[in-house]
Every structure is written in structure tokens, then in C-alpha cells.
Amino acid sequence: MKILITGGAGFIGGNFIHYILKKYKNYKIICVDKLTYAGNLSTLNTALESPNLSFFKTDITDKDSIFSIFENEHPDIVINFAAESHVDRSIKDPQIFTITNIVGTQVLMDACREYSIQQFHQISTDEVYGDFPLDKTDLFFTESMPLRASSPYSASKASADLLAQAYYKTFKLPITISRSSNNYGPYQFPEKLIPLTIVNALNGLDIPIYGVGKNIRDWIYVEDHCKALDLIIHKGKVGEVYNIGAGNEKTNLEIVNAIIDILGKGKIQFVQERPGHDLRYALNSEKIKNNLGWEPKTSFETGLKQTIKWYLDNKKWWEDIMDKDTIYY
Question: How many angstroms separate the CA atoms of 209 and 24, rounded?
Fold first, then answer.
């Protein structure tokens, strides 16, 4: 089996490469990554020593480069992790999100059509569904719900999902889509809430929280997400969408306070609310549980402690990648 993974030097993609190489000793992995600020070869560290991993630095919107890689490598499965993914950055500059997340997906699927790929899997997000009010705790997103994106980021991901479904219907391209909740774990760039909180607390910097910190997210440990993707690419039904959530609903304030308690340090600074900030995300993941037998194994408490320990043990990784002139939010 040969799997082409885009965005493999990023957070979830990198973790997935480590996972696959460890579990499937005879699989070949082709990693394609542009190496933007959030993509770093240091994330792949020991994986690059494996003869089963090859790396190509390129942009998924570069049709000639992508088609050349497909022509030479002949992958069986393509998994598209590559994306601009930070909501705040999408508010400042929507265009790069439109280009990478939509046009890049289209280029990849055109290559999949040209070279008769067995399966194209699109990594999406729960943010495409919009949000629920904080007081409607009995509501959960199912795969059949309409897409109601709030930010330029989520709109670009929703667009890519719709494009993938259109390629399935129009061209019979064998696609699957997964929409996961908020991931956390090793190798996450320190602009997202959990690593940002850890890094700022360790550096004696204020920890910013939007508004009053009541926004709710469902959190999944990245290894549990990788296991779900493993099942989808091997047992998932073509044309289907799968929600992947762990049922760990926490407010942003609860997350930050939990990290401060474990580290024994950290100062919160409440900042102006983000424009269009979604209130609550909550996924119904019964489909993947019932159809593919997936269950999250890592409790939030265990996963958070493991994540904090990883950042404590790997300071060089995040110190090397952080731009000292950048304000992390």
C-alpha cells in the first residue's frame, strides 16, 4: 500500500505519518508539504529515517508539481491534511485560505482522477456546521446537517467538502470525508489554544482568552483521531462523511485553568472577542462508532497531561519554530 499524505509536516498529518509507519511496516508514505510556518520537518524527525517515507516540498495548488508526483509515485490512497487552519489568520487574510483549501483540494482531486487513485480522503472540521447556543446542550451535529460556516476558514473547508462530494457524484471519484473536533497533542504549532497556553505559561507571558472564555469545544487527542482515520481509509464506505469527536466538551476557560493547575503557573488575560466567534461545537459520532467500531481511548485528563509533558520534554522543537517577532493569539 502506498499512501500520499499532504500536509504531512503539520500537526495532525505528522502524527498520522508516525502512526502509520509504526503500525504498517510495509506501507510506503509519500509526504507532500509546502513547509509554511505551521509545517516543519522537525515534526517528522525519526520518521524521515525510514526508507518507507519520501518527502516532497511543494504547494498542493501547483498542478504541474502535483501531477508529476502522482505520475512518478503512483499512490493508492491520497489523504489531504494540507490546509490553512487558523481562524484568526483567516479573518486577517481570507484569500490564502480560499486558494489553499479550495483550489488545492481541486488540484489533488484532478490528479486522483487522472491517475485512477483508489480513494481520496478529505480531512475536514466540525466548524463547517456552524455552532449551537451555549444553553442547547442536548444538540449535536450529525453528518446529514447542513453546512453553516461562520469564518473564512470554515467556509473554505465547507467549500472543499462540497467540491469533494461533487467530484464523487459527477466524476465517480472514490472520496470519503471526516470532520473532527478540536485536536490536541504533540507537534501542534503554538498558536492554537492548548499549546499556546502551555508555551505562554512556561515563558511567563499572559495567556489570552477571547471574551469571558465560555465558548465550548469538544476535544480529541490526536492519536485517537489517527486511529479513526486508519479505519476510514481501510473500512470506510466511499462517498460517506464521518464525524470524529471524543465527547470532551470544555469551555476555553476550563482548558486554560486545567493547564495552569498542572503547570503551577500562568496568568490569564481576557481579550476582545473574536469576530463571529462560534459558541459551541458538539459532534454526534455514532456513525463511525456503529459502522467502523471506533471509540476514543484517551481521556481528556490523560491526554492533557501527556501533551503538557511532551511540550516540557521538547522545548527545542517549539522554541526553534516560533517566530520571535510574531504575536501568538
Answer: 41
